[in-house]
Amino acid sequence: MSDENLPTFEGLEVGQVVATRDVEFTRDTLVRYAGASGDFNPIHYNDVFATEVGLPGVIAHGMLTMGTAASVVEEWAGPGNVQDFQTRFTRPIPVPNPGAAVVTITATVGALDPELNTARIDVIVEFDGTRVLGKAQAIVTCA
User: Fold this and answer.
1) 138 beta partners
2) Per-residue pLDDT at 1
3) 49 backbone dihedrals φ, ψ, rounded to 5°
4) What's the CA dihedral at 122, 103, 79, 81 to 10 degrees?
5) In what helix (H) or strand (E) does residue 1 lie, and over which residues does it extend?
6) In the structure, what pLDDT confidence band is assigned to residue 33 with cuts at 50, 70 and 90?
7) What gap in Å lies between CA 60 and CA 32, rounded to an integer?
8) According to the 3-state scheme, what is the secondary structure of 44-107?
9) pTM of the model
10) Cα separations (Å) of 100 from 9, 60, 124?
11) Structural domains in the chain?
């Protein structure tokens, strides 16, 4: 990979927002993700089942949420430049029918490592004003 696709280390500062995006999850989104991932757990499509197991209704797949957050970082960093992405799933995202759950993703420079020429990107993923992923962080290679 050429350096022209990498974020420039010198151009980054701790606290700098490098990417933001609002994403809508609809029931159609969940169906498509279930088909692609093979995750057909009824909590992702059956309101009755979801409420019977104590959820507020059908919820988005955790891996869909994580993957969407990681894609925001990857679009900023360039293909292949995200070395690592980790998170904890802390809150479900109920997806209405009809309608959409709007998730806000913000990626911020959390730390810079001049020795490794990497940036730690802290990712905040919020639904309805509440964080739904905990300690979401990516390590990105810089030029």
Assistant:
1) 85, 121
2) 43
3) -60, -45
4) 10
5) none
6) very high
7) 11
8) HCCHHHHHHCCCCCCECCHHHHHHHHHHHHHHHHCCCCEEEEEEEECCCCECCCCCCEEEEEEE
9) 0.93
10) 37, 11, 19
11) 3-141 (3.10.129.10)
